[in-house]
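Ex. 9. Protein: Probable membrane transporter protein.
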Amino acid sequence: MTATLILVLALSVVIGLSLGVLGGGGSILTVPILVYVAGFEAKEAIAASLFVVGVTSAVSVLSHARGGRVMWRTGLIFGAAGMAGAFVGGLLGGHIPGQILLIAFAIMMVATSVAMLRGRKKKNDDDGAPVKHDLPLGRVLLDGAVVGLITGLVGAGGGFLVVPALALLGGLPMSVAVGTSLVVIAMKSFAGLAGYLTTVQLDWGITLGVTAAAIVGSLIGSKLAGRIPEAALRKAFGWFVLAMGTFVLIQQAPADLRWFIAAGVAALTAATAGICWFFISSCPLRSRTGRRSKIPSPA
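Predicted structure tokens for Probable membrane transporter protein:
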């Protein structure tokens, strides 16, 4: 076993951890690992990521289902809508140049990271009684098809789009939305894979190895779900995804523009951090300082 393969398998465990704990992020990690570490072509990496994430999500559902964190009817309705969009996305992706797909993937990573860093405004708390309501069928079909199209096309955007949609449309608490999203992700991933397999051949040896390692990570992640503070984990993962998205975007840019893009992203990040620190009272960058200032000094 080569050092590269060992590294790929080790990183694949993190893919499963992300799916098990956050209900998303699998493809965000899988595609860069397969392209830049395993040496896959862009289309092959996207297709393989759909298989890896689909199988891993299906396995992860079992642990969440045993914990009562899966709403099957909601997941199946949303997933069925997403499958049509994912299959069309997979068909289209097979005919789009790989560089364009990776640029679209990088943009999706940056958008996902921003959404993660912003966090969610929770109307319900997991510790209280969730306010469940009837699913607006038309909205579910539309959202499912759009999310499925994005997932099938670039192999990303599944969990981090599905979880908020389930929380808003179905009134599900976050832990249940995460478990239910895995049903949706599995269905959409296999539909998108079917579309890609009409034009793409996979290296099944590496793909199955990555899948097995990701399953191990997902089982660990399912056990850890609820034990790790979600907000802290999501923000840390968000910064990591932002860095990875920037890296992919720079790699796909023309050589003479790479330093310009890197400097621009760095300047934008620094400006955003400065604005947050100096002008936003609830800025998370200085939350610790704010908490300390509220502690009364000893007499």
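Check your answer against this statement. The radius of gyration is 20 Å.
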